[in-house]
Specification:
Distance between the termini: 11 Å
Largest sheet: 5 strands, mixed
CATH topology: Immunoglobulin-like
CATH class: Mainly Beta
Order of helices and strands: HEEEEEEEEEHH
Radius of gyration: 23 Å
Structural class: alpha+beta
Strand content: 25-35%
Number of strands: 9
Length: 169
Amino acid sequence: MRRGVFAAVILVALVVPAAASAHATLKEVHPGEQDRVDAPPSEVTLRFDQSVEAPPNAIVVLAPDGRTLSGPVSQSRRGTVVRVPVHGAVGGQAYTVRWRVVSADGHPVSGAVPFRLTVAGPGSAVPAAAMTASPAGTGSMPWWPWITGGAGLLGTGVAVARRLARADA
């Protein structure tokens, strides 16, 4: 009877860390963190270790005054590379690339990468309000991992309870 409980505890201990480590990881960004670039970048590129889901506003390039200088994102066929065009960067200023994507396991992953443009660039900025609206449902975690995990734990609990009941009988 105690072996069943011990086996259930070991199973949960092995499964939980494996699920937590399945999040996508940012492997490369261009321009990189704290880079000093001599020419205005035409786009910002993020490369992940696994496929991610990127909504149209997954990457936003922000000027020091809060203006958004980027457009909608595009994604590679495999989903590991996400790009966004950049317009209106001005030299001598620091910019921030804010990103938020969803891993294949359903968990959101986000971050910010600063870089500095040392030479002026052409173009005009897109108003921040045009790029900050989030499509419905992209700001929250999906419900299916919670349902699946809950069902798995419930099934394990029922199996352990049955085994304990048989051992007592």
